Amino acid sequence: MTLTRILSVLMISVMLFACSSKKKEEEKILPAEEIYNNSMNNLETKKYKKAVEGFEELERTYPYSKWAIKAKIMSAYTSYKNEEYTDAISTLDKFIALHPGNKDIEYAYYLKALSYYEQISDIGRDQSYSIYSRDALQEVIARFPESEYSRDSQIKLDLVLDHLAGKEVEVGRFYLKKGKYIAAINRFKEVIDKYQTTSHVPEALHRLVEANVSLGLKDEATKYASVLGYNYPGSKWYEYSYKLVEGKKPDVKSRESDTKKWSVNPFKKSQKNLADTVSKEVPEVENGNNDKIIPLKVEPVTNREVTESEIISSTEEVIITPKDSIFKKVSKWFKGLTTSAEPVVLEENK
């Protein structure tokens, strides 16, 4: 009785497995253009997750095709629109590594830089993304100096550098208030050395005057005041520095009101970018017929016998070198796992 039950369960399991396998085989594989258009519709209606899933399906179903290449760049763009910047960067890194000669390569580098740029936080927090953004924007400018992306990248790079300079000034001010003048001087010098074209240089020079006066280094203070007066003669920071060098106290309240307070990211989401310039056109197919694209279909391996008609003849000879160094030739190839056909006779190479 027990054996009968076991056999019944096994038979039912086999039948269920066979039915499920048959259903999977019968699943319709959509044409590449249809999958692409469906994903684009989801993108336009801001159904970003479904759009990404569609583009990923297109890559899996039609790998190594122009559709797969287009799907990857569109997947990165969709992730960017959905503010999934980490996913966008990861996808773009793969695209850049696999398709360095693609026509969308300039856009890929630019979108990667934008993905870092959008994650920049206020100067009170860690500025890792500011540094990543700076490096990525500089790469776009260096690689594609004549492109429209280069010009926009330069504008954003100036803002990023100003932001990084603002971070150094903010930290320097903190050290200055705590009476840690050497640490403050090092921060302000960093601004002078690395960020000379930013709007924070006048204040950094004034703070160097202030720190050196506090240390009793009047000659150093005078030197920085002179540089400030020569480069920014009409600046209020020069007025404050001049009073300090002369031994007068500047109007602290007025001076602090001139201090830039970068409590939030001043340029995130405020600047226009070229992210939406990605080409959304259907990729051209070399054979001119989208229906001829063969989707990837993996058939399950079955243990079956191969008939003689499935034995494929080959005009090429394959030389086999066994351990006993006797050279033998075979002129037939077999297709399948097992065969009931007569084996090929290996003749000794004379």
Give a quick set of tags describing it.
single chain; Serine Threonine Protein Phosphatase 5, Tetratricopeptide repeat; mainly alpha; 350 residues; 13 helices; three-stranded antiparallel β-sheet
Mean pLDDT: 79
Bulk shape: elongated
The DSSP helix count reads 13
Q: How far do the termini sit from each other?
A: 65 Å
User: How many strands, what sense, and barrel or not for the largest sheet?
Assistant: 3 strands, antiparallel
Q: For this entry, what is the oligomeric state of its chains?
A: single chain
> Which percent bin holds the helix content?
55-70%
Q: Give the H and E element order.
A: HHHHHHHHHHHHHEEEEE
Strand order of the largest sheet: 2-3-5
Please give the radius of gyration in angstroms.
34 Å
Name given to the CATH homologous superfamily of the largest domain: Tetratricopeptide repeat domain
Tell me how many strands there are.
Answer: 5
Strand content: 5-15%
Number of domains: 3
User: Which ranges are low-confidence, i.e. pLDDT below 50, for 5 or more consecutive residues?
Assistant: 21-26, 287-293, 298-302, 310-346
